[in-house]
Each structure stands twice: as structure tokens, then as C-alpha cells.
Design goal:
The chain is of the alpha+beta class. It folds into 2 domains: 3-308, BirA Bifunctional Protein, domain 2 (2-Layer Sandwich), CATH 3.30.930.10; 321-402, 3-Layer(aba) Sandwich (Rossmann fold). It is built from 8 helices and 23 strands. The strands form 6 sheets. It has a 5-stranded mixed barrel. A 5-stranded mixed beta sheet has the order 20-19-21-22-23, with helices on both faces. Helix 2 (44-62) runs antiparallel to helix 5. The structure holds adenosine-5'-triphosphate and magnesium ion. Residues 257, 260 line the site of magnesium ion.
Length: 404
């Protein structure tokens, strides 16, 4: 992409109404545009990041043999009445259709996926299976002041799994847990992300959250000094004792929840009569699990964890482009153009600053936008290309053929 043709432009001033640094950098870089409190449009660069995150998630969740679907965003009131959530989920956006029919905008999809599963689940032979989607969720959040970390409309990957017995649910839950680590590794946030015990609801003592350490987060986590297991402060009653290793030594950190996994048991299968015929011909309720990841929240978290005073430092796996090519001076323009065309024809993801700006302005924008590698073509580099990693200060000279 040529920056001279880019729809979005970088912004010099910090947006005054944004408190979190990730939102400030994403707005200044032209990744997202704020529509209203808690509502953002993804601009071309931001959408590329979101698509990269989504595709990493797809690869890892497909590896669990879960199948992707896309559920309706409108949820009929009756479905939510069945589970008693129409009046008890306080962040629901409710609306009326024609004929006074009432709906909610999807905030979570147990009420669609459970009756759906019922249509195709007859016997133990149909189990287990996993269904997931990547879809916009709507929540009328009371607090929406952390930029893209907490919004009123956001993409979520929500996976639901269906099982004949507890052992199978437990097995699957552990597999999802491992695939979440792979996702957070590939999206560049694993190092500061903790597995955290949280309250589990009716069917299990605990659920698990994946919490990334950042001051922009709203949660407080007790982290065990011995084994780094976390416990959400909301559920620590009395003195802390690590649920994994029983140590009593801890530190408290601020963190943001990027994902969670939950054993639902029969909470949703019972009200929808989602049953199956077991090997012994008995009718039994299906056991369910649900597993979420917030996509824009993950993007914002990646920025919170990978930035410096100059801008974003995208992890390789989710950077919108791998290279940021800069031409300096009139005499290098044509050569930079040829290099750009060559890289594009080789399928390499490169953003090209072909604008008539000063070196200082171009370098500042490259640092703000945060591609992992900066390429400079100038009279000084002669027939080579200078390459510098965004997170390093030592440039190197390479041949064009060495850039892959
Ligand atoms: P939180 O505790 O932060 O309110 P939650 O427990 O309600 O989130 P879920 O309903 O399980 O979260 O949603 C799954 C994932 O969706 C969360 O782990 C988070 O990454 C993301 N998410 C939830 N609410 C929001 C929001 N308002 N804005 C952006 N992402 C969100
Ligand atoms: Mg939560």
C-alpha cells in the first residue's frame, strides 16, 4: 500500500477524550475511528490487524475440529426468556420489530446455539462437536472508557462445545486452554498473559480467564509468586492461597481479560431440552462449554504490551504489513518505487511511504504505525537497502533479494 493513496492519515495530536494509550495510538495511527463512546469503526489498517488476529484464531480453533458458523445477530426475545436472561442480562440492547415483536442484539449466543444444536443432535454418536463464530457482539456497557478494550460493539470469537459426559467436557476444555496459549503466543501477548482462576457459576467451582498485565486493564489479579497462576480478586475470599500450588505468597497486578473459558454443564441444554440418547438408550442432557476471545480487545492489548513513547511495535504475527518502506530524497524515488513493485509482486506485505515529506516526518510516522521492519532507500544506501527492526536501534544493509 502506498501511503500517498492511503485513506486514513496519521494524526499528530493526542485525542483528549481517550484515556488508554492503546486507543490514543490506534486513533493517531489511523487504525480506528471513534464514532461515539464505546463505538469504533475499523479503518483499513485496523481491519488488517483484526483479520490477522481472526485468522490466527481460526487456524487454532479449526485444529480442534470445531466448525465455523455465523449465527444471527438478532435474538428473538423468546429465546432469552427461556433462559431467564431477557430481564437479567443488564447489558442487553433490546429493540422492537414490526408487529411489536421484541428482540435483543446478540450479546452472547448460548440462546441461539443451544436450540441449533438440538436440531442435529440425536445420539451419543453425534457428540462431541464444537461450533464457533467470529461476530459482532452488542453490549450496553455502563463503563466504556478504555478505548477498544471495552466497547459497546465488538467482534468476539465465541466457541461452544457439546459433550456426552463430564470427562469429555474436561478433556476438551483443556485442549481449548492449550490452543488459547498458542493464539496468545502467535498474537504477541503471551509473555504478559496469565491463566487466572475466576468464579465458575453453578456447574464448576472455577472458570478460567486469560488476563494480560497492563495498567489499562480494569481487573485486579492476585498472581502466585511461586507458579504465576492468577486468581481474580473478585473471588479471593479471605487470605490468598494459590489454587494450583497452595503457596500464600502473591503480588497484585492490574490486567485486562482477553479471553475466558467456561464449563456450562447443563445450564443451557436443560432449558432448551438439548438431550441425546446414550449408549444405554437413556435420554440425557448434553454438557456444554463456552470459550470467548474479544478481537479488538486483543488488538488493544497487543498495543498496550508492545509500544514505546514513539508509537506501536506490532508483533510480527498481527502487524498489518511486515515492512514499512521509506524513500528519502528525490533521487531515490524511482528506485524505491521499483523495490516496492518487486516486493509486492513477490507477495510481500509492504507499506510504502512515497509521500513528499521530510525524513523526520516519515520516520516519525513509521514509528507511530509500528510495522516490525523499516526499510530505507536513500543515496546513502546506494544499491542496498537499510533495514531496521522497529524495536532495535541498529540498522543493517541488505540486498533486495535478501528481503523475504
Ligand atoms: P468482562 O469481564 O471484561 O466484562 P466478560 O466476562 O463479560 O468480559 P465474556 O462475556 O465472556 O466476557 O466475553 C468473552 C470475551 O469478549 C472477553 O474475554 C473479552 O475479551 C471480550 N469482551 C467482553 N466484553 C467486551 C467489551 N465490552 N468490549 C470489548 N471486548 C469485550
Ligand atoms: Mg469477565
Amino acid at each position: 500500500m502506498r501511503l500517498s493513496k492511503s485513506f486514513s492519515k496519521t494524526i499528530k495530536d493526542y485525542p483528549k477524550d481517550e484515556q488508554s494509550l492503546s486507543a490514543q495510538l490506534l486513533i493517531r495511527g489511523g487504525y480506528v475511528d471513534k464514532v461515539a463512546a464505546g463505538i469504533y469503526t475499523l479503518l483499513p489498517l485496523g481491519l488488517r490487524v483484526v483479520n490477522k488476529i481472526s485468522n490466527i484464531i481460526r487456524e487454532e480453533i479449526n485444529a480442534l475440529e470445531a466448525q465455523e458458523i455465523l449465527m444471527s445477530g438478532l435474538i428473538p426475545k423468546a429465546n432469552l426468556v427461556t433462559t431467564d436472561r431477557y430481564d437479567n442480562f443488564d447489558a442487553l440492547f433490546k429493540l422492537k420489530g414490526r408487529d411489536e415483536k421484541e428482540y435483543a442484539l446478540g450479546a452472547t449466543h448460548e440462546e441461539i446455539v443451544s436450540p441449533l444444536a438440538k436440531k442435529f443432535t440425536l445420539s451419543y454418536k453425534d457428540l462431541p462437536f464444537g461450533l464457533y463464530q467470529i461476530q459482532n457482539k452488542f453490549r450496553n456497557e455502563a463503563r466504556a472508557k478504555s478505548g477498544v478494550l471495552r466497547t459497546r460493539e465488538f467482534l468476539m470469537k465465541d466457541l461452544y462445545s457439546f459433550h456426552e459426559n463430564q470427562e469429555d467436557l474436561d478433556r476438551y476444555y483443556d485442549e481449548v486452554l492449550q490452543s488459547y496459549w498458542k493464539i496468545f503466543e502467535r498474537t504477541g501477548i503471551r509473555q504478559k498473559t496469565y491463566l487466572v482462576y475466576a468464579s465458575g457459576g453453578t456447574f464448576s467451582k472455577y472458570s478460567h480467564e486469560f488476563q494480560s498485565e497492563t495498567d489499562a486493564g480494569e481487573d485486579e489479579i492476585y498472581v502466585c509468586n511461586a507458579c504465576s497462576t492468577g486468581v481474580n480478586k473478585e473471588i479471593v475470599e479471605g487470605d490468598f492461597e494459590c489454587p494450583e500450588c497452595k503457596s500464600k505468597e502473591y503480588q497484585i497486578i492490574k490486567a485486562v481479560e482477553v479471553g475466558n473459558i467456561f464449563k456450562l454443564g447443563t445450564k443451557y441444554s436443560q432449558p432448551f431440552e438439548l438431550n441425546f440418547v446414550d449408549k444405554d438408550s437413556k435420554i440425557k442432557p448434553v454438557l456444554m462449554g463456552c470459550y470467548g476471545i474479544g478481537i479488538q480487545r486483543l488488538m488493544g492489548t497487543a498495543v498496550e504490551l508492545n509500544k514505546d513513547e514513539k508509537g506501536i511495535i506490532w508483533p510480527e504475527g498481527i502487524a498489518p504489513y511486515k515492512y514499512h518502506l521509506i524513500s528519502l530524497g528525490e533521487n531515490s524515488k524511482q528506485r524505491a518505487d521499483e523495490i516496492y513493485n518487486e516486493l509486492v509482486s513477490r507477495g510481500i506485505e509492504v507499506i510504502f511511504d512515497d509521500r513528499d515529506l521530510s525524513a523526520g516526518e516519515k520516520f516519525a510516522d513509521a514509528d507511530l504505525l509500528g510495522m516490525p521492519n523499516r526499510l530505507v532507500v536513500s543515496e546513502k544506501t546506494q544499491d542496498k537497502i537499510e533495514i531496521k527492526k522497529r524495536n532495535s536501534d541498529s540498522p543493517e544493509l541488505l540486498e533486495l533479494s535478501q528481503i523475504t
